[in-house]
Amino acid sequence: MTHQHTDPHRPGTASLAEWLRARGMRMTPQRQLVLDAVRRLEHATPDQVSEAVPEVDLTTVYRTLETLEQIGLLAHTHLGHGAPSYRLAEDDHIHVVCHHCNTVVDVPSGLIDDLDRQLHDDRGFRLDRSHLTIFGTCADCLAGRDD
Q1: Does residue 2 fall inside a structural domain?
Q2: What CA–CA distance (Å, rounded) separates 37 from 47?
Q3: What is the CATH number of the domain that holds 71?
């Protein structure tokens, strides 16, 4: 019989209740519902989370998303000019967004390793990959355009 070791300081190994308790916070049903909705939706604005959990009011959704981000379970990024989009913090990828159809493609964050290394070596600058979104035009929109 094997026992799975959980570490309340690592998001992938601890339950939400353990994660919160390790930070002196209490578990609430609303926190679990919001986290579960973000897991299901993968990239979710506060409004999308609110639609997915109608039993939790929008103000609580916003507060909960902020709390879960502050304690390291969620990360947000901006995929356009609207509300931020939340995802699990451990889901390490870069967002590529089409200006024309708003398609979002997740690509491995390793694609920018060279850029990150060069910025660090040349300028002493480190990228915050969790907030990196690259905008352009997808293949489908390029194929349908005449210019």
Answers
A1: no
A2: 11
A3: 1.10.10.10
One DSSP character per residue, 13-50 reads: TS-HHHHHHTTT----HHHHHHHHHHHHHSSB-HHHHH
Residue 1: pLDDT band (50, 70, 90) is: very low
Residue range 20-70, pLDDT digits in tens:
888 888 888 999 999 999 999 988 999 999 999 999 999 999 999 999 999
The residue written with tokens 């352009």 in the block is 136
Residues 6+ apart with CB under 8 A from 127: 112, 115, 116, 119
Return d(Cα 60, Cα 31) in angstroms, integer.
9
Summary mean pLDDT of the chain: 84
Joined together, the tokens standing for residue 26 give 């209490």
How far is the C-alpha of 118 from the C-alpha of 111, rounded, in Å? 13
Q: Are residues 98 and 128 in the same domain?
A: yes
